[in-house]
Design goal:
The chain contains four helices and no strands. Among the domains are: 78 residues; 88 residues. The chain has 248 residues and is mainly α.
Length: 248
C-alpha cells in the first residue's frame, strides 16, 4: 500500500514544480491534500475490498464447485456400481438362459428320436394290420366261397401244427397213463406185502411164545410158514412182472 500511496505524491510534486515556475496558480492547501489523500485511501480500500470479495467469491465458487464435483463423482461411482451389478445379473441370467436352451435342445433331440422310433413302430404296425386284414379277408372269402388248395397254405400249416401238438399230447397222455397204472400196481403190491409180512410176523411171534402147544402144532406152524414163503415168492414174481410192464 505504501508504494501506491507514494506514487501519487511523487507525481504531484514534479507537476507542482513546473507550475510554480510557469506562473500557475499557487500551491494547494493542506485541506485539499488531505481530501485528496483521504479520497485516494477510500478508493484503495474499496478496491481492496472488491478484490477480497472477488477472491472470497472465487474461493466459495471453487469450494462449491469442488463439492459439486465430489457429489457428481460419488453419483457417478454409485451409477457405475449399479450398472456393474446390473450387468452381472444380466450375465447370470444369460448363463441360465443358455443352460436352459442347451437342456431344451437335448430334450428336443431325444423327443425327436423317440418320435422317429414311434413313427417307425406305427408304420410297422400299420403294415402288419394290413397283412392281417388281407388274411382275414381271404379267410372270410375262403369260408364263403370255398378255399382253394393253393390259397390254403396258412390254414394248412396251422392245422399241421395243431395235429402235431395233438399227437404229442396224446403220447404224453398215454405215457402218463402207463406210469399211473404202474404206480397203482406198485401200491397194491406194497399193500399186499405189508399185510403178508404182518401176518408172518404175528405167526412167528405166536410160534415163539406158545410153549404149551404140542409138537404137531409146530409142524403146522412150519407148514404155514412155508405157505407164507410160497405166497411171498408169488408176490415177488408179480412185482417183477409189474416192473417189466412199467419198463415197457
Amino acid at each position: 500500500m505504501e508504494p501506491s500511496v507514494e506514487s501519487p505524491s511523487s507525481s504531484s510534486h514534479p507537476n507542482q514544480g513546473p507550475t510554480s515556475f510557469m506562473g500557475s496558480p499557487p500551491l494547494s492547501s493542506p485541506d485539499s491534500d488531505q481530501r485528496f489523500w483521504s479520497s485516494l485511501l477510500g478508493r484503495v480500500d474499496s478496491l481492496l475490498e472488491q478484490r477480497n470479495a472477488k477472491s472470497s467469491n472465487l474461493n466459495t465458487n471453487k469450494s462449491d464447485r469442488a463439492k459439486r464435483l465430489k457429489e457428481d463423482s460419488l453419483l457417478l461411482m454409485r451409477g457405475f456400481d449399479s450398472v456393474g451389478y446390473t450387468l452381472s445379473q444380466l450375465s447370470n441370467n444369460l448363463d441360465n438362459a443358455l443352460q436352459l436352451a442347451v437342456a431344451m435342445a437335448t430334450k428336443t433331440s431325444s423327443l425327436a428320436r423317440e418320435l422317429k422310433s414311434l413313427k417307425s413302430n406305427i408304420c410297422f404296425m400299420q403294415e402288419r394290420c394290413a397283412i392281417l386284414d388281407e388274411e382275414n379277408r381271404r379267410l372270410r372269402n375262403g369260408v364263403s366261397t370255398g378255399v382253394k388248395p393253393e390259397e390254403d397254405d396258412l390254414v394248412r400249416l396251422q392245422m399241421e401244427a395243431l395235429l402235431a401238438e395233438k399227437s404229442r399230447l396224446a403220447n404224453e397222455n398215454a405215457n402218463l397213463t402207463r406210469e399211473n397204472q404202474c404206480l397203482y400196481q406198485l401200491a397194491e403190491y406194497h399193500q399186499l406185502t405189508s399185510q403178508d409180512l404182518s401176518l408172518s410176523y404175528d405167526e412167528a411171534i405166536g410160534m415163539c411164545l406158545d410153549f404149551s402147544s404140542p409138537p404137531p402144532a409146530i409142524v403146522e406152524g412150519a407148514e404155514g410158514q412155508g405157505q407164507g414163503q410160497g405166497r411171498a415168492e408169488g408176490q415177488g414174481q408179480g412185482q417183477r412182472q409189474g416192473q417189466g410192464q412199467c419198463d415197457y
